[in-house]
Amino acid sequence: MYNPGFFGILSELGSLRGAGVESLQVRKVLNNNVIIAVHPEYGETVVIGKGIGFSRKQGDAIALDSIEKMFILTNEKAKEQYKLLMHQVDEKLIEVMNDVIFYISQHAGAPLNEQIHIALTDHIAFAIKRYRQHIPIHNPFQYETRELYPREYLLAQHVIDEINRRLGVQLPEDEVGFVALHIYSAITNRHVVEVKEHSRLVTDLIDLIERKLEIKIKKDSLDYARLLRHLMVALERIRRGERVEEPTKIAEIIKNEYPEMYSFAWTLMKVIQQRMQKPVYEAEAIYLTIHLQRMLPSEGS
To answer: 1-74 adopts what CATH topology?
Structure first.
């Protein structure tokens, strides 16, 4: 079970000083720019500042004036993972990642899951390693990610632009899609593996539709955008166990009018049911039938 924990960046350090907090105590130095400190109210916190860890030792007091950012990892497992990551990743990358995650938190419109500090930093470190080893990066559901998560995709573009600019690399556009999924995962408190699996499932369903209908769907078409959104919304309903109202009269019309598409819609529903291990209700097949019928080329085209 994914433990969402709590993630918060305390940018208004002046409010802490007003509450009588003038300094924090060093618990552990992770590198020159990141330390674990003890806050009187929040307990262990991750403290970030240029050179803040240099020549520091356990028990030293850190004045608030030297702190640039601070965040809290309440999940003990995440805390230990973060400490390990600090020893495996370049300090410059840590600095850049702290900055871009702070930017994401300011523009996400919702609290972020604390796991983003570990998952996204680890992902980018591996992406840079592949880039420097000239290993190609391909994102099979790049277009779908951009269509389904436009806000997260824009934030991810900023992240990749900053990383490329400040670290002197050229991570490709494909990485924007991967980062967008990490951001969506942090916003929705869902594990990034589950988010990626849903995106992969949507891509696989589109592939099945193209092969069954013997068509190549134009990805810039309105019908494709509608189909994508319908599939993702349907997956979300199925994931949450929500049952939409079954349109009894419409259902009978759809079954009689488009029996082949209705049968194929149920084939796709069975794929979803098997992959997600969740029950699927008839209304989902009815609504999908309508979208599938719309995808068929018109006569004479």
So the answer is: Transcription Regulation, Sacy; Chain A (2.30.24)
